[in-house]
Amino acid sequence: MPRTTLFTNIGELTTNDQAPGREGGPLGIVRDAALLAVDGRVAWVGPAAEAASAVPSPDEIVDLGGRAVIPGFVDSHSHLVFGGDRAEEFAARMAGRPYEAGGIRSTVQATREASDEELRARLAAFVGELHRQGTTTFEIKSGYGLSVEAEERLVRLAREVTEEVTFLGAHVVPFEYREPDGPGADAYVELVTGEMLAACAPHAKWVDAFCERGAFTAEQSRRVLEAGRAGGLGVRVHGNQLGPGEGVRLAVELGAASVDHCTYLSDEDVAALAASDTVATLLPGVEFSTRQPYPDARRLLDAGATVAIASDCNPGSSFTSSMPFCIAVAVRDMRMTPAEAVWAATAGGALALRREDVGALRPGMSADLVELDAPSHVHLAYRPGVPLVRRVFRAGEHLA
Ligand code: NIG
Ligand code: FE
Protein backbone atom coordinates (compact mmCIF):
# COMPACT_ATOMS: atom_id res chain seq x y z
CA MET A 1 0.00 0.00 0.00
CA PRO A 2 1.42 3.46 -0.86
CA ARG A 3 2.04 5.72 2.13
CA THR A 4 0.11 9.01 1.97
CA THR A 5 0.75 12.15 4.02
CA LEU A 6 -1.34 15.30 3.77
CA PHE A 7 0.44 18.53 4.72
CA THR A 8 -2.34 21.00 5.37
CA ASN A 9 -3.19 24.40 6.81
CA ILE A 10 -0.18 25.93 5.02
CA GLY A 11 -0.61 29.72 5.12
CA GLU A 12 1.74 30.38 2.20
CA LEU A 13 3.12 27.55 0.07
CA THR A 14 6.02 28.38 -2.25
CA THR A 15 6.07 25.71 -4.94
CA ASN A 16 8.51 27.15 -7.55
CA ASP A 17 5.91 25.90 -10.03
CA GLN A 18 4.11 28.57 -12.03
CA ALA A 19 0.80 26.75 -12.52
CA PRO A 20 -2.20 28.90 -13.54
CA GLY A 21 -3.77 31.00 -10.78
CA ARG A 22 -0.67 31.16 -8.59
CA GLU A 23 1.04 34.26 -7.22
CA GLY A 24 4.61 35.45 -7.00
CA GLY A 25 5.84 34.68 -10.54
CA PRO A 26 8.50 31.95 -10.42
CA LEU A 27 7.71 31.18 -6.75
CA GLY A 28 4.26 29.85 -7.74
CA ILE A 29 2.69 30.68 -4.36
CA VAL A 30 -0.53 29.02 -3.19
CA ARG A 31 -2.25 30.52 -0.12
CA ASP A 32 -4.16 28.44 2.46
CA ALA A 33 -2.72 25.41 0.77
CA ALA A 34 -2.32 21.68 1.19
CA LEU A 35 0.14 19.21 -0.34
CA LEU A 36 -0.24 15.46 -0.61
CA ALA A 37 2.86 13.25 -0.57
CA VAL A 38 2.55 9.66 -1.78
CA ASP A 39 5.56 7.43 -1.08
CA GLY A 40 7.73 10.52 -0.61
CA ARG A 41 6.73 12.26 -3.84
CA VAL A 42 4.46 15.23 -4.30
CA ALA A 43 1.17 13.91 -5.68
CA TRP A 44 -1.15 16.90 -5.38
CA VAL A 45 -0.95 20.62 -4.47
CA GLY A 46 -3.94 22.91 -4.06
CA PRO A 47 -6.14 24.95 -1.75
CA ALA A 48 -6.59 23.23 1.62
CA ALA A 49 -10.35 23.63 1.26
CA GLU A 50 -10.25 21.29 -1.75
CA ALA A 51 -8.03 18.69 -0.11
CA ALA A 52 -10.88 16.73 1.45
CA SER A 53 -12.48 16.00 -1.90
CA ALA A 54 -9.24 15.76 -3.93
CA VAL A 55 -7.44 13.48 -1.49
CA PRO A 56 -8.84 10.23 -0.13
CA SER A 57 -8.20 9.71 3.61
CA PRO A 58 -4.40 9.97 4.08
CA ASP A 59 -2.33 7.79 6.43
CA GLU A 60 -1.04 10.90 8.20
CA ILE A 61 -2.05 14.54 8.45
CA VAL A 62 0.58 17.19 9.25
CA ASP A 63 -0.92 20.52 10.34
CA LEU A 64 1.30 23.50 9.46
CA GLY A 65 -0.64 25.93 11.64
CA GLY A 66 -1.02 28.61 8.97
CA ARG A 67 2.76 29.03 8.63
CA ALA A 68 4.81 29.42 5.43
CA VAL A 69 6.31 26.39 3.67
CA ILE A 70 9.05 26.46 1.03
CA PRO A 71 10.89 23.68 -0.85
CA GLY A 72 13.97 22.28 0.95
CA PHE A 73 17.13 24.25 0.26
CA VAL A 74 19.50 22.85 -2.37
CA ASP A 75 23.04 23.79 -1.35
CA SER A 76 25.03 23.18 -4.52
CA HIS A 77 28.49 24.11 -3.20
CA SER A 78 30.26 23.02 -0.01
CA HIS A 79 33.60 21.63 1.15
CA LEU A 80 32.60 19.67 4.26
CA VAL A 81 35.27 17.00 4.61
CA PHE A 82 38.23 18.60 6.36
CA GLY A 83 40.25 18.61 9.54
CA GLY A 84 40.92 21.53 11.88
CA ASP A 85 39.60 25.04 11.43
CA ARG A 86 41.01 28.46 10.59
CA ALA A 87 39.54 30.65 13.31
CA GLU A 88 42.89 32.42 13.80
CA GLU A 89 43.10 33.22 10.09
CA PHE A 90 39.56 34.62 10.24
CA ALA A 91 40.41 36.77 13.26
CA ALA A 92 43.54 38.06 11.51
CA ARG A 93 41.47 38.87 8.45
CA MET A 94 38.99 40.83 10.49
CA ALA A 95 42.03 42.76 11.77
CA GLY A 96 42.96 43.64 8.19
CA ARG A 97 44.87 40.74 6.60
CA PRO A 98 43.57 39.95 3.08
CA TYR A 99 42.13 36.53 2.10
CA GLU A 100 44.40 34.41 -0.09
CA ALA A 101 43.85 31.04 -1.77
CA GLY A 102 47.07 29.81 -0.11
CA GLY A 103 45.30 29.38 3.24
CA ILE A 104 43.79 26.21 1.76
CA ARG A 105 47.14 24.47 2.34
CA SER A 106 46.84 24.72 6.13
CA THR A 107 43.54 22.82 5.97
CA VAL A 108 45.19 20.26 3.67
CA GLN A 109 47.75 19.60 6.39
CA ALA A 110 45.08 19.21 9.11
CA THR A 111 42.92 17.02 6.86
CA ARG A 112 45.77 14.66 5.98
CA GLU A 113 46.46 14.25 9.70
CA ALA A 114 42.83 13.44 10.63
CA SER A 115 41.59 9.84 10.81
CA ASP A 116 38.62 8.55 8.82
CA GLU A 117 36.64 8.39 12.05
CA GLU A 118 37.39 12.02 12.89
CA LEU A 119 36.40 13.18 9.43
CA ARG A 120 33.24 11.07 9.49
CA ALA A 121 32.16 12.40 12.89
CA ARG A 122 32.77 15.97 11.74
CA LEU A 123 30.84 15.36 8.54
CA ALA A 124 27.91 13.84 10.42
CA ALA A 125 27.75 16.94 12.63
CA PHE A 126 27.72 19.21 9.56
CA VAL A 127 24.98 17.15 7.94
CA GLY A 128 22.91 17.60 11.10
CA GLU A 129 23.51 21.34 10.90
CA LEU A 130 22.41 21.42 7.28
CA HIS A 131 19.23 19.48 7.97
CA ARG A 132 18.25 21.61 10.97
CA GLN A 133 18.61 24.71 8.81
CA GLY A 134 16.38 23.38 6.04
CA THR A 135 18.89 21.99 3.55
CA THR A 136 17.60 18.72 2.11
CA THR A 137 20.02 18.31 -0.84
CA PHE A 138 23.69 19.23 -0.74
CA GLU A 139 26.86 18.89 -2.76
CA ILE A 140 30.29 18.22 -1.20
CA LYS A 141 33.67 18.78 -2.85
CA SER A 142 37.00 17.16 -2.07
CA GLY A 143 40.08 19.38 -2.35
CA TYR A 144 41.75 19.24 1.06
CA GLY A 145 43.66 16.02 0.35
CA LEU A 146 45.63 16.79 -2.83
CA SER A 147 47.30 13.39 -3.14
CA VAL A 148 45.83 10.29 -4.80
CA GLU A 149 45.07 8.52 -1.52
CA ALA A 150 43.92 11.62 0.33
CA GLU A 151 41.55 12.80 -2.41
CA GLU A 152 40.16 9.28 -2.87
CA ARG A 153 39.43 9.21 0.87
CA LEU A 154 37.59 12.53 0.78
CA VAL A 155 35.31 11.69 -2.14
CA ARG A 156 34.64 8.27 -0.62
CA LEU A 157 33.64 9.79 2.74
CA ALA A 158 31.54 12.47 1.04
CA ARG A 159 29.76 9.77 -0.96
CA GLU A 160 28.60 8.19 2.31
CA VAL A 161 26.36 11.21 2.93
CA THR A 162 25.41 12.58 -0.52
CA GLU A 163 25.12 11.60 -4.19
CA GLU A 164 26.37 15.05 -5.18
CA VAL A 165 30.11 14.55 -4.84
CA THR A 166 32.64 16.72 -6.67
CA PHE A 167 36.27 15.82 -7.30
CA LEU A 168 38.30 19.00 -6.70
CA GLY A 169 41.88 17.69 -6.85
CA ALA A 170 42.61 20.99 -8.65
CA HIS A 171 41.96 23.15 -5.58
CA VAL A 172 45.54 24.43 -5.17
CA VAL A 173 48.98 22.99 -5.96
CA PRO A 174 50.05 21.14 -2.77
CA PHE A 175 53.23 22.33 -1.07
CA GLU A 176 55.24 19.23 -2.05
CA TYR A 177 54.69 20.05 -5.74
CA ARG A 178 55.45 23.77 -5.53
CA GLU A 179 58.56 25.24 -7.16
CA PRO A 180 61.45 25.73 -6.56
CA ASP A 181 61.90 22.40 -4.73
CA GLY A 182 58.93 20.45 -6.03
CA PRO A 183 58.05 19.26 -9.56
CA GLY A 184 55.65 22.18 -10.22
CA ALA A 185 52.06 22.91 -11.11
CA ASP A 186 52.01 21.17 -14.50
CA ALA A 187 53.30 17.94 -12.98
CA TYR A 188 50.56 18.18 -10.35
CA VAL A 189 47.94 18.71 -13.07
CA GLU A 190 49.22 15.56 -14.71
CA LEU A 191 48.68 13.65 -11.48
CA VAL A 192 45.17 15.11 -11.11
CA THR A 193 44.14 14.21 -14.66
CA GLY A 194 45.70 10.74 -14.45
CA GLU A 195 45.99 8.60 -11.37
CA MET A 196 44.00 10.86 -9.04
CA LEU A 197 41.03 11.17 -11.38
CA ALA A 198 41.01 7.41 -11.94
CA ALA A 199 40.89 6.82 -8.16
CA CYS A 200 38.23 9.47 -7.47
CA ALA A 201 35.86 9.24 -10.45
CA PRO A 202 34.09 6.07 -9.19
CA HIS A 203 32.87 8.01 -6.11
CA ALA A 204 32.13 11.33 -7.83
CA LYS A 205 29.52 12.85 -10.10
CA TRP A 206 31.32 16.13 -10.85
CA VAL A 207 34.76 17.55 -11.55
CA ASP A 208 35.72 21.09 -10.51
CA ALA A 209 38.82 23.30 -10.74
CA PHE A 210 39.77 26.52 -8.94
CA CYS A 211 40.62 28.76 -11.90
CA GLU A 212 42.19 31.73 -10.15
CA ARG A 213 45.45 33.56 -9.54
CA GLY A 214 47.28 31.56 -6.85
CA ALA A 215 45.50 28.33 -7.88
CA PHE A 216 45.26 27.11 -11.53
CA THR A 217 45.52 28.93 -14.87
CA ALA A 218 42.70 28.66 -17.41
CA GLU A 219 44.82 26.30 -19.46
CA GLN A 220 45.53 24.00 -16.49
CA SER A 221 41.89 24.16 -15.40
CA ARG A 222 40.78 23.20 -18.91
CA ARG A 223 43.02 20.12 -18.84
CA VAL A 224 41.50 19.01 -15.54
CA LEU A 225 37.89 19.67 -16.56
CA GLU A 226 38.24 18.01 -19.96
CA ALA A 227 39.87 14.95 -18.41
CA GLY A 228 37.06 14.76 -15.83
CA ARG A 229 34.45 15.05 -18.53
CA ALA A 230 36.15 12.33 -20.59
CA GLY A 231 36.04 10.23 -17.39
CA GLY A 232 32.26 10.59 -17.21
CA LEU A 233 31.97 13.48 -14.73
CA GLY A 234 29.86 16.63 -15.10
CA VAL A 235 31.72 19.94 -15.10
CA ARG A 236 31.56 22.78 -12.54
CA VAL A 237 34.09 25.58 -12.03
CA HIS A 238 35.32 27.93 -9.27
CA GLY A 239 35.99 31.20 -11.11
CA ASN A 240 36.31 34.98 -10.91
CA GLN A 241 36.42 34.97 -7.09
CA LEU A 242 39.50 37.01 -6.25
CA GLY A 243 39.77 39.04 -9.44
CA PRO A 244 38.76 39.14 -13.11
CA GLY A 245 39.78 36.04 -15.04
CA GLU A 246 38.93 33.39 -17.57
CA GLY A 247 36.98 31.00 -15.31
CA VAL A 248 33.51 32.08 -16.37
CA ARG A 249 34.25 31.95 -20.08
CA LEU A 250 35.93 28.57 -19.73
CA ALA A 251 32.90 27.23 -17.81
CA VAL A 252 30.47 28.46 -20.46
CA GLU A 253 32.61 27.12 -23.29
CA LEU A 254 32.75 23.67 -21.66
CA GLY A 255 29.00 23.70 -20.97
CA ALA A 256 29.55 23.52 -17.20
CA ALA A 257 26.43 23.06 -15.08
CA SER A 258 27.58 25.94 -12.88
CA VAL A 259 30.34 28.47 -12.38
CA ASP A 260 30.68 29.50 -8.77
CA HIS A 261 31.74 32.76 -7.07
CA CYS A 262 31.33 35.14 -10.09
CA THR A 263 32.43 38.09 -8.01
CA TYR A 264 34.49 39.93 -10.66
CA LEU A 265 32.67 39.81 -13.99
CA SER A 266 33.24 41.71 -17.25
CA ASP A 267 30.32 42.65 -19.51
CA GLU A 268 31.41 39.77 -21.77
CA ASP A 269 31.26 37.31 -18.86
CA VAL A 270 27.73 38.45 -18.00
CA ALA A 271 26.62 38.21 -21.64
CA ALA A 272 28.18 34.74 -21.99
CA LEU A 273 26.37 33.50 -18.87
CA ALA A 274 23.06 34.98 -20.02
CA ALA A 275 23.35 33.23 -23.39
CA SER A 276 24.20 29.87 -21.81
CA ASP A 277 22.57 27.37 -19.48
CA THR A 278 25.52 27.51 -17.10
CA VAL A 279 24.19 28.66 -13.74
CA ALA A 280 25.98 31.55 -11.99
CA THR A 281 26.24 30.37 -8.38
CA LEU A 282 26.83 33.16 -5.89
CA LEU A 283 28.24 32.47 -2.43
CA PRO A 284 27.29 35.32 -0.08
CA GLY A 285 29.09 33.77 2.90
CA VAL A 286 32.41 34.20 1.10
CA GLU A 287 32.28 37.95 0.70
CA PHE A 288 30.82 38.24 4.18
CA SER A 289 33.78 36.29 5.64
CA THR A 290 36.56 37.68 3.44
CA ARG A 291 35.39 41.31 3.36
CA GLN A 292 35.65 41.32 -0.42
CA PRO A 293 33.12 43.19 -2.54
CA TYR A 294 29.87 41.28 -3.03
CA PRO A 295 28.97 39.94 -6.50
CA ASP A 296 26.21 41.92 -8.20
CA ALA A 297 23.30 39.49 -8.59
CA ARG A 298 21.09 42.23 -10.04
CA ARG A 299 23.41 42.69 -13.00
CA LEU A 300 23.27 38.95 -13.76
CA LEU A 301 19.50 38.69 -13.28
CA ASP A 302 18.76 41.75 -15.39
CA ALA A 303 20.90 40.31 -18.17
CA GLY A 304 18.89 37.06 -18.05
CA ALA A 305 21.42 34.73 -16.39
CA THR A 306 20.25 31.96 -14.05
CA VAL A 307 21.45 32.62 -10.51
CA ALA A 308 21.81 30.14 -7.64
CA ILE A 309 22.88 30.80 -4.05
CA ALA A 310 24.99 28.29 -2.09
CA SER A 311 26.84 28.30 1.23
CA ASP A 312 30.35 27.26 0.07
CA CYS A 313 30.68 26.01 3.64
CA ASN A 314 34.44 25.58 4.23
CA PRO A 315 36.87 26.48 7.03
CA GLY A 316 38.59 29.27 5.08
CA SER A 317 36.43 31.60 3.06
CA SER A 318 32.90 30.87 4.37
CA PHE A 319 32.33 28.82 7.50
CA THR A 320 28.54 28.95 7.46
CA SER A 321 26.20 26.09 6.63
CA SER A 322 23.14 28.33 6.80
CA MET A 323 21.15 28.92 3.63
CA PRO A 324 18.82 31.35 5.48
CA PHE A 325 21.88 33.43 6.36
CA CYS A 326 23.03 33.36 2.71
CA ILE A 327 19.58 34.48 1.57
CA ALA A 328 19.59 37.40 4.00
CA VAL A 329 23.02 38.57 2.84
CA ALA A 330 22.13 38.15 -0.85
CA VAL A 331 19.08 40.34 -0.36
CA ARG A 332 20.82 42.97 1.75
CA ASP A 333 24.10 43.20 -0.18
CA MET A 334 23.75 41.63 -3.63
CA ARG A 335 20.62 43.45 -4.79
CA MET A 336 18.31 40.44 -4.90
CA THR A 337 14.67 40.56 -3.89
CA PRO A 338 13.60 38.09 -1.17
CA ALA A 339 11.67 36.12 -3.81
CA GLU A 340 14.70 35.91 -6.12
CA ALA A 341 16.94 34.80 -3.26
CA VAL A 342 14.55 32.07 -2.06
CA TRP A 343 14.21 30.81 -5.64
CA ALA A 344 18.01 30.87 -6.11
CA ALA A 345 18.54 28.84 -2.90
CA THR A 346 16.04 26.15 -3.96
CA ALA A 347 15.22 25.91 -7.69
CA GLY A 348 18.48 27.66 -8.63
CA GLY A 349 20.56 25.15 -6.66
CA ALA A 350 18.68 22.28 -8.29
CA LEU A 351 19.50 23.66 -11.75
CA ALA A 352 23.15 24.07 -10.72
CA LEU A 353 23.17 20.35 -9.89
CA ARG A 354 21.04 19.48 -12.93
CA ARG A 355 18.48 17.86 -10.61
CA GLU A 356 14.90 17.59 -11.78
CA ASP A 357 13.52 15.89 -8.67
CA VAL A 358 14.25 18.59 -6.06
CA GLY A 359 14.04 22.38 -5.71
CA ALA A 360 10.31 22.67 -6.42
CA LEU A 361 7.07 21.17 -5.11
CA ARG A 362 5.48 19.89 -8.28
CA PRO A 363 3.72 16.53 -8.71
CA GLY A 364 6.36 13.85 -9.18
CA MET A 365 9.11 15.67 -7.31
CA SER A 366 10.54 14.72 -3.92
CA ALA A 367 8.35 16.02 -1.07
CA ASP A 368 11.14 18.09 0.54
CA LEU A 369 9.50 20.78 2.65
CA VAL A 370 10.68 23.43 5.08
CA GLU A 371 8.17 24.83 7.55
CA LEU A 372 9.04 28.38 8.61
CA ASP A 373 8.16 29.95 11.92
CA ALA A 374 6.83 32.85 9.84
CA PRO A 375 3.83 33.73 7.68
CA SER A 376 5.89 34.33 4.52
CA HIS A 377 9.14 33.43 2.74
CA VAL A 378 10.08 37.14 2.92
CA HIS A 379 10.85 36.70 6.62
CA LEU A 380 13.98 34.68 5.73
CA ALA A 381 15.63 37.96 4.68
CA TYR A 382 13.56 40.29 6.84
CA ARG A 383 14.51 38.51 10.12
CA PRO A 384 18.22 37.78 9.64
CA GLY A 385 19.87 35.52 12.20
CA VAL A 386 16.57 34.31 13.66
CA PRO A 387 16.15 30.51 13.54
CA LEU A 388 12.98 30.45 11.44
CA VAL A 389 13.25 26.83 10.27
CA ARG A 390 10.68 24.99 12.40
CA ARG A 391 10.42 21.52 10.87
CA VAL A 392 12.05 19.90 7.84
CA PHE A 393 10.64 17.00 5.81
CA ARG A 394 12.51 15.04 3.16
CA ALA A 395 10.71 12.66 0.84
CA GLY A 396 7.64 13.28 2.98
CA GLU A 397 9.33 12.14 6.21
CA HIS A 398 10.23 14.28 9.22
CA LEU A 399 14.00 14.91 8.98
CA ALA A 400 14.68 17.65 11.55
O1 NIG B 1 35.27 28.09 -2.58
N1 NIG B 1 37.76 29.21 -3.72
C1 NIG B 1 38.31 28.15 -3.44
N2 NIG B 1 38.00 27.32 -2.46
C2 NIG B 1 37.19 27.65 -1.35
C3 NIG B 1 37.99 28.25 -0.25
C4 NIG B 1 38.71 27.24 0.47
C5 NIG B 1 39.53 27.69 1.63
O2 NIG B 1 39.86 28.90 1.81
O3 NIG B 1 39.86 26.77 2.38
C6 NIG B 1 36.07 28.56 -1.79
O4 NIG B 1 35.98 29.72 -1.37
FE1 FE C 1 34.31 26.57 -2.98
TrEMBL record:
Amino-acid positions noted as binding Zn(2+) in the UniProt annotation, renumbered to this chain: 77, 79, 238, 312
InterPro entries given in the database record: Amidohydro-rel, HutI, Metal-dep_hydrolase_composite, Metal_Hydrolase
Domain Amidohydrolase-related: 69-374
EC number: 3.5.2.7
Subcellular location: Cytoplasm
Claim: Hydrolase is one of the keywords in the record: yes
Name under which the protein is recorded: Imidazolonepropionase
Reaction it catalyzes: 4-imidazolone-5-propanoate + H2O = N-formimidoyl-L-glutamate
Chief location of this protein within or outside the cell: cytoplasm
Function: Catalyzes the hydrolytic cleavage of the carbon-nitrogen bond in imidazolone-5-propanoate to yield N-formimidoyl-L-glutamate. It is the third step in the universal histidine degradation pathway.
Protein family membership: Belongs to the metallo-dependent hydrolases superfamily. HutI family.
Keyword Metal-binding: yes
Annotated binding of 4-imidazolone-5-propanoate, by residue: 86, 144, 171, 241, 317
Domain of life: Bacteria
Keyword tags: Cytoplasm, Histidine metabolism, Hydrolase, Iron, Metal-binding, Zinc
GO molecular function: imidazolonepropionase activity
Binding site for Fe(3+): 77, 79, 238, 312
Pathway in which this enzyme or protein is active: Amino-acid degradation; L-histidine degradation into L-glutamate; N-formimidoyl-L-glutamate from L-histidine: step 3/3
Cofactor: record remark: Binds 1 zinc or iron ion per subunit.
Binding-site residues for N-formimidoyl-L-glutamate, renumbered to this chain: 144, 314, 316
Cofactor(s) listed: Zn(2+); Fe(3+)
